[in-house]
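Can you give me the bound-state structure? Components:
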Amino acid sequence: MRLHPAVRWVWLAGAAIMFAVVMGIGLFIEWSVRRDMRALPVPIGTLALANALLIGGWTAVYSWLRYGAWGYLLRDEDLVIQSGVFFKLRRCIPRSRVQHVDITSGPLDRAFGLVEVHLFTAGGTGAVAVIPGLSPEAAEQLRAALVRSSSDGV
Amino acid sequence: MGSEPIEYQVSEAALEGSLHPMTIGVSIARALQQLLPVIAIALVFRVFGRSVDTIELVIAVLGLLRVVGAIVHYLTYRFRVDSAALHIRSGVLFQQKRVIPLSRIQNINIKRDWINQLLGVAEVQVETASGTGSEATLSSLSLPQAQLLRQRLLGQKESSVDAPAAAPANLVYEAGVGRLILAGATRNQAGKIIAVIFGLFFYAQQLMGDEQRFWRRAVRRVPPATLTWTNALAALAALIFLGWIASMVRSVFTFYGFRLEEQNGRLRRTYGLLTRRESIFPTHRLQMLRVESPLIQRKLGLCRVLAETAGSFAEKEEAATSELCPIIERANLNGVVRHVLPGFDLSAVQWRKVSRKTIRRAAIRYCIILSILILGIGYTYRAALWGLAAAPFAAVLFSILRYRALRFGVTHNLVLLRKGVWHRTIAAVPREKIQSTDVTASPLQRRLGLANLGVAVASGAFGGGLTIVDIPTATAVELQDELMRTFGVKAQKHPAVDTTGAVGGGESVT
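Here's the bound-state model for the whole set.
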């Protein structure tokens, strides 16, 4: 099963916000330390724009690759998750080991009508797996299937 | 029949009441133990004739507070066991009522440190599945009362119509003082000893002021004739020897009278000289078993068995890892381990090699690490830079040795990993304890067609497990699916909801 295609835009938007924040802080520091912007060989605006285009382009490519690498599949005995553009991961979680399932959605997810599914097993800290960018229906279906088949898991 | 009413009475007493009055004594002893360094400092100052009024006052106030606290704790602490739960009520200002359902109690530890032993009482730690550490600690009760309480709390889980004490205990494993000394003597602790020596050394320098003065003063004290290399080496040897003795002493103190006994299908573990520990080994919570043998032990056919259990053992051992056997002959290993892992047989494991290409990866890694180390040392001692020439050879040699030691195996109920050139470790995970499995591949590994297979279990605070490195990707994925089939029987009860669509579409790990 693939993720929802819109997740690429969520990732891109997230990166854009992150970029804007970092860039803003950087520019502010630059401005407060060196008041005279004209001292630079290239106008600061041009630099910022070039930076934005470069990083934005890379993020777009990466988001598309990441989407292509992502996949999950509910099998008879387990849930298989595959991800990773450079560092590949294939994780299998036995259905009977799933302790509980959370469905969450951040503001960006909601803007695109998507949710995340967090899976928890016994032991360890945090979720054993996070499936991003699912439609609420797909997430609910996955949760129902997982919760129905899970039992005591230590 | 005649003894029955009496036992009933004793049981009733244990099921409801307050702590042993000696609890106050224990608290005072603990406070004294904690304040000992401060008192010692005060004494030193007094000897040197300086004013200590403030320190003494602080000690007195702290001590008084502890005593009052202990008395209040004793007077307000009440516990009760009914058919469903253990109820504990304590506190004056902040009253706390805790109810622990008996069905949730996983284990009861009875702990006796030297203060407890001296005052004839015991501490009862109640463990549940959730969280780390013990859910409740009853400190202190008399030993018979503690044992009775444990019997009641654990006994409720199973039908305990017959008195559990009636069944004879069957000795599974025992380690005498001689074997414990051997365990301490053969455990590879040279590294630790050297670290401690260096630590003390730098500490001494710090205390004595700046480095040069320290050395000059030290050199002036000793006659020049004794400052030879042979003497320095002899001093180092003496220190290592002392550390070796300390290791043996520590082994005896920690594991004195180590016994594993089976009684009513439970494994009871008792050990310790100053702090006597007694607990039921939580067999059902075993997540991973580690068989460790440093070089000397391996040559002598000996090993040490550690068990990793889910949740914590509430005892101060390495995280959630605890000793199953401090030292045992390899020949007797299977017999003991079978009590916690039925059907365990190391000799039946078909060990498989990882890919030979792992040598290349490891050699590159070791070469880089070695070179950085040598460059670092060479910054001060130029002569060390010659080591750069030897680094590649050393790296390749060690990589080959590492590859030879590296083996994995998958049996019908276990996943095993063997590794370690000198300190050999065999890790075994029961297949039904697996929480999740990972096949991972870095860009370099993918170029070589390799992947790692990781098996996660629920032991330790951050989760534990083992990772089989550098096996062919196809083998890794195949094994991963094979391991998941362990859970097939359970899953068949619940038909799959949606299995359409290929895994990961066009992109896959391979």
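A couple of observations. The mean pLDDT of chain B is 78. Residues 202 and 211 of chain B are 9 Å apart (CA to CA).
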